[in-house]
TrEMBL record:
Keywords for this protein: Cholesterol metabolism, Disulfide bond, Glycoprotein, Lipid metabolism, Lipid transport, Secreted, Signal, Steroid metabolism, Sterol metabolism, Transport
Molecular-function annotations in GO: cholesterol binding; cholesterol transfer activity; phosphatidylcholine binding; phospholipid transporter activity; triglyceride binding
Compartments in which it is found: Secreted
Catalysis: reaction(s): 1,2,3-tri-(9Z-octadecenoyl)-glycerol(in) = 1,2,3-tri-(9Z-octadecenoyl)-glycerol(out); cholesteryl (9Z,12Z)-octadecadienoate(in) = cholesteryl (9Z,12Z)-octadecadienoate(out); cholesteryl (9Z-octadecenoate)(in) = cholesteryl (9Z-octadecenoate)(out)
Major localisation: secreted
Record-given protein name: Cholesteryl ester transfer protein
Annotated gene: Cetp
GO cellular component: high-density lipoprotein particle
Record CDD domains: BPI1
Membership in a protein family: Belongs to the BPI/LBP/Plunc superfamily. BPI/LBP family.
Summary of the function given for this chain in its UniProt record: Involved in the transfer of neutral lipids, including cholesteryl ester and triglyceride, among lipoprotein particles. Allows the net movement of cholesteryl ester from high density lipoproteins/HDL to triglyceride-rich very low density lipoproteins/VLDL, and the equimolar transport of triglyceride from VLDL to HDL. Regulates the reverse cholesterol transport, by which excess cholesterol is removed from peripheral tissues and returned to the liver for elimination.
Entries under PROSITE patterns matching the protein: PROKAR_LIPOPROTEIN
Length: 505
């Protein structure tokens, strides 16, 4: 899922978690017709992301490769004076403040105020005149500067993907002071070089710093796109995040619309008309995801085709399943079914016979499926023997939540309709006590156990993609007729940005 950081270009970094390219970046007249997934990041999130501006700006300055600056100028009485600034390196850097603004012309404006930076290096100069011999000198220098930086980040389509172009970059210098050999007092030599070096130095700083910022922007974008691609892919199951329409930038939010097709081997879901409307989402939370019933249903179908909707129970779990209550009737039914065999020598298998039918409603996610249960005993030295087999159509309503880095699935109403029932303890099927016991066992323990296993598997899957590294604040999962909304606030783990910059730069 999307957008899922705090950094200078984090304002679009999170956006790009869900932005993946369409083949030609050409869309039909209806912007939402085939939308299966929508991601919206609001202005409060942008302000939070912008807090880490200093980290990336500092990385851009420090990683910029400042070339040697050379020049020559005629000076009265001195003749031609040649100079070179060599080994230019950034020393100290600080940032006073950074502001972000969303513009409806599809651009994100970031203004960084009062970047104070100190550069050090070596100044070499030589001159030849009528009264002087040709001389060459080399002195250490330090340059103090104060700069404002303006970035206009444009979201644009390039070849087969949407990219963030940060090449529109401006540096405004409020101060550029040259000190020679630590001498802070003005002198003729300092004044001479300051006068005709400053302009060249400003051009070089602007070119190299802006080039490095744009390079970092593309590096971060590619990194996040790779993360997004991995997050929505697990083995052979892939969610296609191709754009269904152009991204939307309003003064209060940035929003992207995606097809949400599910791909599995040779199987691909088909595009369907969307019921999405921008009015379904607000701007009071930092981050929103809108997912259609069509996308959720096709994910369940892909999981079925991949054989993931199956569960095996042994030992204590099997015992907990069948010993729902300590009554004489229960003990008698268990004894008849297992024929006195230990739970350790028995196994129960549960699997879905058909693709689950998913319906999203205000009360929760309604799942309907034909499920098979097979219980076998494995006597020592003998082949396994099936003692219970049944097929039943189960309909269950599930409410979902996310807390403490775990997905929580709560089963509500459920209904069970037996289609096939075979039990060696009741071959005629005339013993109502066994069927009653089995039906109660499935309702009270069986369904919660299966849902708990799905809950655990999905949590592990999401954590394996790195979701547990993020600080999600009060996430809410809200189901409505035909769609689900996930809304949350967040903090970004500061160490992830530092680790990224250390590894990449």
């Amino acid at each position: 899922m999307c957008w899922a950081g705090r950094m200078i270009l984090g304002i679009f970094r999170i956006l790009l978690v869900l932005i993946h390219a369409s083949a030609a970046c050409e869309f039909g007249p209806s912007p939402y017709r085939t939308t299966g997934i929508v991601c919206r990041m609001t202005k409060p999130a942008g302000l939070l992301l912008n807090q880490e501006t200093a980290q990336v700006i500092q990385a851009a300055f420090r990683n910029a490769k400042f070339p040697n600056i050379t020049g020559e100028r005629s000076v009265r009485l001195l003749g031609k004076v040649a100079y070179g600034l060599n080994n230019i390196q950034i020393n100290d850097l600080s940032i006073e403040k950074s502001d972000v603004e969303l513009k409806e012309e599809n651009a994100i404006h970031i203004a960084i105020k009062n970047v104070t930076a100190s550069f050090k290096g070596t100044l070499t100069y030589g001159y030849a005149g009528a009264w002087f011999l040709k001389l060459f000198h080399s002195v250490d220098f330090e340059i103090e500067s104060s700069i404002d930086l303006q970035l206009n980040i444009e979201l644009m389509c390039q070849e087969d993907q949407l990219v963030a172009d940060a090449s529109d970059c401006y540096l405004t210098f409020h101060k550029l002071t040259l000190h020679l050999q630590g001498d802070k007092e003005p002198g003729w030599l300092k004044q001479l070089f300051t006068d005709f070096i400053s302009f060249t130095l400003k051009l070089v700083l602007k070119r190299e710093v802006c080039k490095e910022i744009n390079s970092l922007a593309q590096m971060l974008a590619n990194f996040v796109l790779d993360l997004a691609a991995k997050f929505v892919r697990d083995k052979d199951i892939i969610v296609d995040l191709s754009l269904a329409s152009d991204s939307v930038i309003k003064t209060g939010y940035v929003e992207s619309h995606h097809k949400g097709l599910v791909l599995y081997k040779n199987y691909s879901s088909i595009l369907s008309d969307s019921i999405f409307s921008p009015s379904l989402l607000t701007d009071s939370r930092m981050l929103y995801f809108w997912l259609s019933e069509h996308t959720i249903s096709n994910l369940a179908s892909a999981a079925f085709l991949d054989g993931r909707l199956a569960l095996t129970l042994r030992g204590e779990k099997l015992q907990a399943l069948f010993e729902t209550e300590d009554t004489e009737a229960q003990q008698k039914a268990v004894q008849m079914i297992f024929q006195g065999t230990s739970y350790n020598d028995s196994v129960a298998k549960v699997w879905s016979l058909t693709q689950p039918q998913i319906s999203l409603q205000p009360e929760g996610t309604i799942v309907k499926s034909l499920v098979a249960v097979e219980v076998s005993i494995l006597p020592t030295g003998e082949e396994s023997q099936v003692v219970l087999y049944m097929e039943k159509e189960i309909t269950v309503t599930i409410q979902a939540a996310y807390a403490e880095k775990r997905l929580l699935l709560q089963p509500l109403d459920s209904s069970i309709e037996f289609k096939v029932f075979k039990c060696t303890a009741d071959p005629s099927g005339n013993d109502p006590s066994i069927q009653s016991f089995i039906k109660n066992m499935i309702s009270v323990v069986g369904i919660p156990e299966v849902i708990s296993s799905i809950e655990s598997a999905l949590t592990s899957l999401m954590n394996s993609k790195g979701l547990d590294l993020f600080y999600l604040i009060n996430p809410e999962i809200i189901t409505r007729e035909g769609y689900v909304i996930v809304q949350l606030d967040f903090n970004f783990p500061h160490h992830l940005l530092l680790d990224f910059l250390q590894k990449k730069l």
